């Protein structure tokens, strides 16, 4: 058997995170790196989620890398919110431009990541039976990269075609003239339903929880606006990094309850018409923390939904009432609600009448049988912890990450784990991650890891590990911040409740990107407060 290859760092994944990590560590720091990617090419989310209608929910001019000024100047987005094919093209362009692929092994899934106490090195096993060794692991395995397993019995017996939005085929799927069933009305469901409704002979939507979807406001790129933005791109990126969600919005008002009903309506109307996340994050500051303030936005959206759907019974079913606005990630849409005015579309409430099983010809709920030729599962992901827990990670003394996290994730800053030295999580649980514009969140985390590695190198050290105390304090702080918001009151993937048996814990740090970045910077400035830095036991590959 051949000797395992050794690297300074192994990177897992080749999405936004993996691509940037390869560039940063290899090209800027001169490290010997190798990335492993389960897919056959770069792109991550945008490689796997090829379903019709997939597009970003943060404007592309912001939802893109900021690390290279030439890159951000030369790339042109054709739409305000780019679709999946264009985002994938962009990531391929970045991979070409920085010659990323030569450091990536595609079609290679990491199946074990084991710390060796003797050598202070990680041993990484892959699904082709090989082992590789590295001092550092950078996990860019993603937050939304493990689709939820179907919870319904009978899926295997279904006689027609079955598609998962999170693992969509590369070839176009033809819905023309077919009867289609879609389960799920999260952001993926809402996008795919809108597209399938255009072609299908009959579309049955199985909705468990209605969502607060608001208009995306997409349009072809305005070239004048684009030129203006590119002229001050660094300034825009700076403003983004100083905003809760990582976007350069600056119209937010203090409280929905401090203004008259008329004024409130005006603010909501303006944000509704502007599109994107303006209503959610750029209207009133107390929407995520004060139920009464939230109720005003929720009622506004419910009324707008009811204006758009002709049948009052269907409109009522589509109007969310069981969770505050934005406690689930708010989907963005174009003509979603109008779909339900079409004769070929039926909405089935599966909260009132749950799906009992998938049958060979469709689905059976407690109320009746529904027939279709194609089943689309838009049922979400084992988010945040799923990708990490599926890699069999073992830390010091052989401790399994599954055991350490049996009651929910324990991390320091969402980037590191006590007992798992030299392992960096890119946008891990308990970091702002999905409540921060992700490419910027990813760059910040890769830079954090790179700086820590450089710091060790400069000081002739080899191991960095979060202390248990620092980790406990961070977990407590992250939970306290979450408790001060409305998020823990709702069932969502943010809370882990979309997966049966998963601990109910807030998986996202809700202090906002600017506060989080300040905390990280202070920790670094204080010589990596909360981390033990040490020399390696034996040999070093660095
Ligand atoms: P990913 O893109 O998920 O890439 C992770 C990669 O790691 C995958 O390719 C996967 O195959 C690979 N991998 C995982 N485990 C292993 C393993 N064990 N071995 C080998 N390879 C492995 N965020 C936003 O901020 N704005 C948006 O508009 C937005 N839109 C989204 C739309 C969809 C449909 C989805 C699902 C997510 C969206 N997100 C959005 C979140 C999105 O996941 C991030 O923005 C970003 O793409 C994450 O990049 P990443 O590289 O961290 O992870
Ligand atoms: P999701 O938000 O978790 O939605 C899953 C949907 O499936 C929900 O409606 C859920 O209902 C339903 N569901 C799950 N299990 C079910 C069951 N057993 N029976 C009936 N219904 C069931 O997943 P997603 O839509 O894939 O989105 C995940 C995240 O990816 C988003 O929140 C967002 O961050 C990102 N995303 C972004 C975009 C974008 O616009 N850029 C697009 C897609 C995804 P319940 O709510 O009742 O659980």
TrEMBL record:
Its EC number is 1.14.13.92. Pfam families: FMO-like. SUPFAM superfamilies: FAD/NAD(P)-binding domain. It comes from the Bacteria. InterPro entries: FAD-binding_Monooxygenases, FAD/NAD-bd_sf, Flavin_mOase-like. The keyword NADP applies. GO terms for molecular function: flavin adenine dinucleotide binding; N,N-dimethylaniline monooxygenase activity; NADP binding; phenylacetone monooxygenase activity. Its cofactor is FAD. The keyword Magnesium does not apply. Keywords: FAD, Flavoprotein, Monooxygenase, NADP, Oxidoreductase. Belongs to the FAD-binding monooxygenase family. This is Phenylacetone monooxygenase. It comes from Corynebacterium occultum. The gene is pamO2.
């Amino acid at each position: 058997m051949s000797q395992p290859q050794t690297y300074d760092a192994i990177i897992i994944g080749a999405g936004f995170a993996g691509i940037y990590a390869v560039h940063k560590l290899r090209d800027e720091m001169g490290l010997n790196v190798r990335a492993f990617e389960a897919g056959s090419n770069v792109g991550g989310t945008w490689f796997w989620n090829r379903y019709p209608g997939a597009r970003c929910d943060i404007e592309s001019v912001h939802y893109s890398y900021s690390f290279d000024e030439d890159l951000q100047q030369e790339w042109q987005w054709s739409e305000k919110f780019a679709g999946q094919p264009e985002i994938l093209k962009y990531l391929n362009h970045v991979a070409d431009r920085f010659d990323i692929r030569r450091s990536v092994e595609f079609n290679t899934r990491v199946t074990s990541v084991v710390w060796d106490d003797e050598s202070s090195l990680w041993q990484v096993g892959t699904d082709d039976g090989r082992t590789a060794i590295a001092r550092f692991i950078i996990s860019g395995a993603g937050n939304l990269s493990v689709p939820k397993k179907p919870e319904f019995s009978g899926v295997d017996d279904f006689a027609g075609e079955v598609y998962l939005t999170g693992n969509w085929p590369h070839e176009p799927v033809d819905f023309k003239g077919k009867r289609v069933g879609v389960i799920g009305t999260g952001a993926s469901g809402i996008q795919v339903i809108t597209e399938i409704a255009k072609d299908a002979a009959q579309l049955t939507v199985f909705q468990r929880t209605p969502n607060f979807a608001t208009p995306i406001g997409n349009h072809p790129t305005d070239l004048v606006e684009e030129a203006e933005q590119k002229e001050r791109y660094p300034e825009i990126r700076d403003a983004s990094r100083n905003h809760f969600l990582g976007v350069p919005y600056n119209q937010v008002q203090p409280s929905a309850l401090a203004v008259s009903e008329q004024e409130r309506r005006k603010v909501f109307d303006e944000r509704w018409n502007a599109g994107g996340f303006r209503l959610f994050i750029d209207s009133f500051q107390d929407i995520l923390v004060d139920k009464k303030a939230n109720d005003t936005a929720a009622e506004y959206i419910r009324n707008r939904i009811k204006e758009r759907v002709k049948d009052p019974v269907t409109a009522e079913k589509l109007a969310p009432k069981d969770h505050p606005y934005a406690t689930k990630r708010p989907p963005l849409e174009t003509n979603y609600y109008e779909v339900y005015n079409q004769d070929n579309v039926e909405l089935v409430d599966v909260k009132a009448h749950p799906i009992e099983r998938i049958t060979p010809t469709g689905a059976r709920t407690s109320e009746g049988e529904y027939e279709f030729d194609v089943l689309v599962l838009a049922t979400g992901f084992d988010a945040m912890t799923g990708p990490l827990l599926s890699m069999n990670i073992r830390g010091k003394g052989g401790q399994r990450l599954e055991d350490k996290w049996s009651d929910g994730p324990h991390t320091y800053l969402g980037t590191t784990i006590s007992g798992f030295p030299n392992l960096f999580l890119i946008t891990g649980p308990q970091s702002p991650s999905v409540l921060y514009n992700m490419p910027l969140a990813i760059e910040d985390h890769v830079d954090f890891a790179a700086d820590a590695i450089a710091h060790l190198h400069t000081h002739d050290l080899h191991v960095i590990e979060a202390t248990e105390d620092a980790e406990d304090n961070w977990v407590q702080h992250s939970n306290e911040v979450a408790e001060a918001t409305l998020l823990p009151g709702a069932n969502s993937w943010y809370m882990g409740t979309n997966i049966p048996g998963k601990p109910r814990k807030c998986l996202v740090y809700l202090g906002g990107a600017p506060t989080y970045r300040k905390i990280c910077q202070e920790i670094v400035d204080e010589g990596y407060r909360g981390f033990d830095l040490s020399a390696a036991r034996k040999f070093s590959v660095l």
